Amino acid sequence: MLKLKYGNTNTYLIEGRNSSLLIDTDFAGTLPAFYKALKQNDLRVKDIGYVLATHYHPDHMGLISDLMKQGVKLILIDVQMNSVHFSDAIFAREKISSDPIDETRAAVISCEESRDFLQRIGIFGQIVHTPSHSADSVSLVLDDGDCFVGDLEPYEYIDAYMDNAGLKKDWDKLMSLNPKKIFYAHRPEMTIN
After folding, report:
1. Sequential DSSP letters for 82-108
2. Residue 61 and residue 38: Cα distance in Å, rounded?
3. How many Å is the Cα radius of gyration of the chain?
4. Taking Cα atoms as reference points, which of 120, 116, 177 lies closest to residue 148?
């Protein structure tokens, strides 16, 4: 696993046996910085097989359309379908050039199908719906214990929320899969003891 930091969002490239998977991208307009981060790691866009957004806020999906035009395949979880274009209006309002995602070209799967799908590309784990941050939020838990949660609030914050049932439910699902290391989009990674 390789962490690519080229803006405000931590993105991660996971090498599978048959292909690779990029978890999240940064904001639209960060493509030159993304290319630079790839070059620093002796990689090119063609080395990325798939991309998964943990959710469709602008700082997590801003480069997906650009990457799809270059042959990267989007994994779209069915619970994310209604949110794919959430950021379009934000980019338009901010006058940031970004083509909308063409979800008709995505591999649409359910969380229940994710283990089989990922196994075909040589990645062992599963995608879990974790909607306490946003209705379309998902997390990826690998069998080796690496867990990618996007903007999910940390486990230790559960008691800080008055309405914490959703966050607790999300973390209960994730903890049942025995994660060893949590990778956040905007926080340092955390090891689970």
Report:
1. GGTTTTHHHHHHTT---PPP-GGGSEE
2. 17
3. 16
4. 177
